[in-house]
Amino acid sequence: MQHSIQKQQGATLFVALIILVVVTLIGVTAMKNANVEEQMSSNLYQKNLTFQASESAVESTINNFALIQAAMTSNVPVVQNVDVPIPNTTATVTYASAGSGMAVGSSANLFSGMRLMITATGQIPDLNARTVTVHGVVRLAPGGG
Fold first, then answer.
1. Which residues, listed in sequence order, are joined to residue 133 by a DSSP beta bridge?
2. Does residue 6 lie in a domain region?
3. What distance in Å separates the CA atoms of residue 50 and residue 136, rounded to the nearest whole number?
4. DSSP string across 106-134
5. What's the rounded Cα separation, in Å, for the pair 117 and 71?
6. Which residue segment(s) compose the domain that 15 sits in?
7. Rounded to 5 degrees, what are φ and ψ at 27?
8. 57-103 confidence digits (pLDDT tens)
9. Residue 68 — φ and ψ, nearest 5°?
10. Is 4 among the domain residues?
C-alpha cells in the first residue's frame, strides 16, 4: 500500500497547474475581446458624431438662397465651412449645380427645378475621423425651365 501512495505524489500539483494555465488563457482571451469591443464602440461613436456633423451642415445651409444661386451660376462647386453645434467637429459643404429644367409634375411649365449635388463632410480633426454624405436636391422656382 505504501508503494502506490508514493507513485501518486505530485499528481495534484500537476492537475492544479493545468487548471491554472487554462484559467489564465481564458482570462487573457476575455481581456483581448474586451479591448477589441471597446475600440469598436469608440469607432461607432466617432462615426455617429461625424455623420451628425455632416448632416447638420447640410441642414444649416439648405435654405441659404445666396449659396444655391452661387452654385447654380458658377461652373465651379461652391465650398463653405459650416459651424456645427457638435463639440470637437468641423463640417464643410460643397454645392454643385446639376442643371435645371422643368420640374417633375409641372405640366404647364409653372415651375422649374434647380438640381444641386450637395456633398457634406463632417470631421473630428484630432482623431482623423471623417464621414462624407452626398445629397441630390431639387429646389423649385416659379417659371418654366
1. 120
2. no
3. 20
4. -TTS-EEEEEEEEEEEEEEGGGTEEEEEE
5. 10
6. 11-142
7. -65, -45
8. 999 888 888 888 888 888 889 999 999 888 889 999 999 988 777 66
9. -65, -45
10. no
Neighbouring residues of 114: CB distance < 8 A, sequence distance ≥ 6: 68, 72, 97, 100, 138, 139, 140, 141
CATH number of the domain that 33 lies in?
2.20.130.10
- Total domains present in the chain: 1
* Residue range 16-32, pLDDT digits in tens: 999 999 999 999 999 99
Amino acid at 60: S
Closest C-alpha to 115, from 72, 79, 63, 83 = 72
> Sign (positive/negative) of CA torsion 88, 41, 56, 137?
positive
